[in-house]
Amino acid sequence: MSAQPAVAPAVEAPVAWAEARARVYAVGRADAPAPVVLPLAEADGTTLAEPLSPRTDLPAFPTSSVDGWAVRGDGPWRPVGRVLAGGTPAPLTEDGTAVEIATGAMLPTGATGVLRVEESTGGADGRVAGTLRAAPEWRSPGEEARAGEELVPAGTPVDPGLLGLAASCGHDVLSVRPGPRAALLVFGDELLTAGPPGAGRVRDALGPAVPAWLRRYGCVVTGDDVLGPVTDTLPAHVDALRRALSVADLVCTTGGTMHGPVDHLHPALRELDADYVINTVAVRPGFPMLLARVRGTDGRARFVAGLPGNPQSAVVALVSLVAPLLAGLQGRRPPVLPGATLAEPIAGRGDYTHLALVRIDPADNTARPVRHVGSAMLRGLAGADGFAVIRPGERGEVGQRVPVVPLPLLPGERT
Predict the structure, then answer these.
(1) Residue 415: what pLDDT?
(2) Which of 211, 170, 174, 205 is nearest to 191 (CA)?
(3) What pLDDT score was predicted for residue 4?
(4) Has residue 190 got a pLDDT over 90?
(5) Separation CA 151–CA 306 (nearest Å)
(6) Do 187 and 230 contact (CB within 8 A), yes or no?
(7) Are 52 and 169 in contact (CB under 8 A)?
(8) What sequence ranges are listed for the domain MoaB/Mog (predicted)?
(9) CA distance linking residue 117 with residue 69, whole number of Å
(10) What share of the chain is helix, strand, coil (3-state, %, to 5)?
(11) In terms of Cα–Cα distance, which of 337, 332, 258, 328 is closest to 290?
């Protein structure tokens, strides 16, 4: 996917929202860092770089499903030993013999059935009697999976369930793509980082919020990766970007995406010989946003995501450009948008895609727009589940099914 040199005109035709998402995903996938090999204990939250397959059949040997007796032939049976989980039993070579067996223990060669302990009786002669069930009481080799069978495709996020499966498959390490390192630069001399707003200055709401969103998309962000407010001068912007790009795969900036007297992001990108992947998107709110690519001295691509200064618009830029970029960089599948049915009408935005904050009712999967949704407002965002997508030239009608861009959540958070 070709990018444009960072010589930004004052006015540029915005890219269609769906096209912009597809473009940044493709760029991220093409520039994804090489996989690394990690022990299972360190792989949680990464992404599989190779399909997961068992090293042996699962189970690798026949195992008893119950506590009882592994028997050969017809009963009653003469006990000849015991096998516990983890042991290797001797074969049963004679009809009418049995070994006591524990759940999960290896079935002896020659066994023809397993008798549950609660359904067995012992005679005065020491023999075991009982009636075998028709269904086998053991797990056969390969019952769950065959050696080499693809169980989970590459591009799947690694979670506790997958870690357990990998261990059961015999893996000690996994080839994975770790979460990208991200940084945030907050632009704007008018911003306060503590206390209430007043006297012409407003509180920075994005410095605390954006790193939290990025972590939910799989990024690594530390307190040292957040810098600002950066002084509203071109040298300060260039210096801050250079320092952040020296350690981060993705640098998000807030504000400065226009071409006003104190908007220094575009000139700073020119100083860094950046290429635009996207420079403006036909979406409301969220205008203007951008994504640029900077090649390091090592030849590896780093990215700068220019988020608007208005808080809700910045989040629109995150879900529109940053989310698909990060999916590509992590080797994950392209984000697929779920759908919901509109319970109330939503206005269109003419030739622009409208991302409208909505709350989803899980009982019937209906979406209702929330209130307080101005570009500078966060009250509506705090109670929303995602953005309903109203396509250009359309309006959302009651009963219409529309795509929804979900807000990223950590496990256990509300949906």
Answers:
(1) 39
(2) 205
(3) 54
(4) no
(5) 39
(6) yes
(7) yes
(8) 183-328
(9) 7
(10) 20, 30, 50
(11) 258
CA distance 61 to 101: 15
Q: Which amino acid is at 238?
A: V
Domains of the chain, with CATH numbers? 4-33+178-329 (3.40.980.10), 38-56+144-177 (3.90.105.10), 63-139 (2.170.190.11), 339-406 (2.40.340.10)
Predicted TM-score (pTM) of the model is 0.85
Percent of the chain with pLDDT over 90: 79
**Length in residues, the chain:** 415
Going from the C-alpha of 112 to that of each of 73, 98, 158, 190, the distances in angstroms are 6, 10, 40, 81
What does the pLDDT look like over 37-92, one tens digit per residue? Answer: 999 999 999 999 999 999 999 999 999 999 999 999 999 999 999 999 999 999 99
Question: Is residue 282 within 8 Å of 16, Cβ to Cβ?
Answer: yes
Determine the pLDDT at residue 7. Answer: 47
Contact 46, 177 (CB under 8 A): yes
* Residue reference for tokens 């949680």: 44
Convert the pLDDT of each residue in 114-149 to its tens digit. 999 999 998 778 999 999 999 999 999 999 999 999
Given a contact cutoff of 8 angstroms between Cβ atoms, the answer to whether 169 and 53 are in contact is yes
Kindly list the distances between the CA atom of residue 145 and the CA atoms of 50, 159, 167, 264, in Å, as whole numbers in the listed order.
Answer: 17, 20, 14, 57
